[in-house]
Specification:
The chain has 3 domains: 56 residues, no CATH class; 46 residues, no CATH class; 68 residues, no CATH class. It is 48% helix and 13% strand. A two-stranded antiparallel ribbon has the order 1-4. The chain is α+β, with helices and mostly antiparallel strands and 214 residues long.
């Protein structure tokens, strides 16, 4: 630290960056010799590795890129049943009265699409990786388990006891095993059922490969 300061460098990380049981140390550094009025830096408690994640936020004048809003339809069983009832109650009188096939289809599609939008409206939603699936094999149950794993890791890092650390490691190993089994089952089931459809298999591979790190 004396050598860094004597050469004009300031240490921006002041929290422990590695905790193993009752032992903790600051062995990951961010140094700067830039003269700023304020620095935003810190340590993120994460179990990506045995070292935590350090960060520094640099001042910038660039405008934030606004992401386009995401929309989706709610295909709940209740909405599906309501849509079926709406179709049954429609007389299709205007469609059946058309003698031209193009006009008949246009009339049919207008009625069908109106009921579709009515029963399955597009709603805006904000993506949350802890709630929404980020690939096709990470189930809602695994999302809940991942949240529990993160909480246990934070508890083990803050309490620094053998019991808390062992509980986290046991749960983490179980979670990773379930993720591997879910991924294996997803690919085996979908690839075997679409052996003769290479385009479908390509979509399955892309849908199951979004998550690089759980």
């Amino acid at each position: 630290m004396d050598v860094n300061i004597s050469n004009g460098f300031l240490q921006l990380i002041t929290k422990a960056t590695r905790i193993q049981g009752s032992h903790y140390s600051l062995i990951d550094h961010i140094l700067t010799n830039t003269n700023l009025d304020c620095y935003t830096s810190g340590t993120i408690v994460s179990d990506l590795s045995d070292h935590f994640v350090n960060f520094i936020k640099l001042p910038t004048t660039k405008q934030k890129i606004k992401t386009k809003p995401s929309f989706r339809r709610n295909f709940s069983q209740t909405n599906v049943n309501n849509f079926k009832d709406s179709l049954r109650n429609l007389t299709w009188a205007e469609t059946l009265s058309k003698n031209d096939v193009n006009l008949a289809f246009e009339s049919f599609w207008n009625d069908f699409n109106a009921l579709y939008d009515l029963n399955f409206p597009l709603t805006k939603f904000k993506f949350n990786k802890n709630v929404h699936k980020i690939n096709d094999y990470l189930t809602s149950g695994l999302l809940i388990s991942r949240k529990t794993k993160i909480l246990l890791h934070k508890k083990a890092a803050s309490e620094r006891t053998i019991e808390a650390n062992q509980k986290y490691r046991t749960y983490r190993n179980l979670f990773n095993t379930l993720v591997r089994k879910s991924k294996k089952m997803y690919f085996e089931t979908n690839l075997n059922s679409n052996k003769k459809n290479p385009k479908k298999n390509m979509g399955i591979a892309q849908g199951g490969g979004k998550l690089k790190q759980s």
